[in-house]
Amino acid sequence: MTVEQREGGADLPLEFPFSRRGDAVPAECAWLREKRPVARVRTLTGDVAWLVSSYALAKQVLEDERFSLRHTAAPGVPRQYALTIPPEVVDNMGEIHSAGLREAVMRSLAPRSDPGLADWLRDRAHDLIDALVAEGAPVDLRAGFADPYSAALHCKVIGVPYADWRRLMSGLDIAFMTSARPFAGATASWRKDHGYMLERLRQAEPNGGGLLGRFAALRAPEDGGGPSDEQLATVAVSLFGAGAVSTSAFLVHAVLALVREPALVRRLRDEPESVGRAVEELLRYNLSIGDGLPRLATADVRLGDVLVRAGELVLVLVEGANFDPGVFADPERLDLDRADNPHLSFGAGSHFCPASALGRLHARVALGALVERLPSLRLAVPLGQLVWRTGFIKRLPERLPVTW
């Protein structure tokens, strides 16, 4: 359906998600913000949802506790796409507070809990770049850097061997697949990864390092009274998956944005102190979140001119909010000097990403190493030749061929 057709069909749900390409803001974003900032859409499953595209309304949804993330996994509710993980996984993640796990999770995700983490990450980044240089250009930066570097961080955070990174990352290709209907491989993939993490948890020494070490100290005694091994392993698998997918996708998009303007790569190399601010702008600018952030209304709530009823699904269009010209001047320009940058890439409210500081450190170290070592970094193929993945929770090119 074209934008022109939508003008005359205000009561017709729009098909969602929009374009899977991550190199341009979908044309629908600007139109929706202006004409229908709260619009009805039809999701992959055929369910109807409300899509929120303006910054102010997106922030309202993310901060209002009447819009629940946990309830999006409840049976019988409208969905973006079929669940590829058991519903109890979402429930277990929602129980972090009540199960007494929050402190262990937050300490593991806080860079300050590991004073040597930045140096460790820098060493991993340079090791990977050494391998790319030895291989010779062109290379696939996603397979050769973004994925293994992001996996390295999360293996360390969780407390599993880095040697296992490939089998852990390969499972995520299924775990974060989006489909109109459930499929058997999703459950098998979850059980495989959950079984791996359960075994590692049971081998972990209490307080022996990483999240699993902290979890080993919390394991329920034989007579009960604490979180079960299954619940602890669920949280560990979920944190690894969400973290590794998100950080790798961000790096791919950040590099893609920078190499399209080579002067920015050279500037970051010449002014390494500006990398931190650049990361904030690249977070705003990245288009990896292609399916919207889901929330289920637990009460009737007014959003702008629309009354959202209890039980209805609301999707926050992050690229709509982050490119809202009412908040960000000249939003489609990548401005590394942007001073005021209240982007919503880490969410907002009680579900603000607990790993935001870790994600920022991960990005600063990676981009600093890349521009230092590869100041002539550029795409090795025409932009239009990138192949964008379909049916995945992130907008991702299958490969990112670069040269230098």
What do you see in this structure?
With 404 residues, the protein is an alpha+beta fold. It is built from 15 helices and eleven strands. The strands form three sheets. A six-stranded mixed β-sheet has the order 1-2-3-9-6-4. Strands 5-11-10 form a three-stranded antiparallel β-sheet. Strands 7-8 form a two-stranded antiparallel sheet. Helix 11 (229-259) packs across helix 13. The protein is globular, with a radius of gyration of 21 Å. Mean pLDDT is 92; it is low at 1-8. Belongs to the cytochrome P450 family. Keywords: Heme, Iron, Metal-binding, Monooxygenase, Oxidoreductase. This is Cytochrome P450. InterPro entries: Cyt_P450 (IPR001128), Cyt_P450_B (IPR002397), Cyt_P450_CS (IPR017972), Cyt_P450_sf (IPR036396).
Mean pLDDT: 92
Q: State the order of secondary-structure elements, H for helix, E for strand.
A: HEHEEHEHHHEHHHHHHHEEEEHHEE
Query: Largest sheet, order of strands side by side?
Result: 1-2-3-9-6-4
Radius of gyration from the CA trace? 21 Å
- N→C terminal distance: 41 Å
Shape: globular
Structural class: alpha+beta
Largest β-sheet summary: 6 strands, mixed
Helix content: 40-55%
**Number of E-state strands:** 11
Organism: Streptantibioticus ferralitis
Protein name: Cytochrome P450
Family: Belongs to the cytochrome P450 family.
InterPro entries: Cyt_P450, Cyt_P450_B, Cyt_P450_CS, Cyt_P450_sf
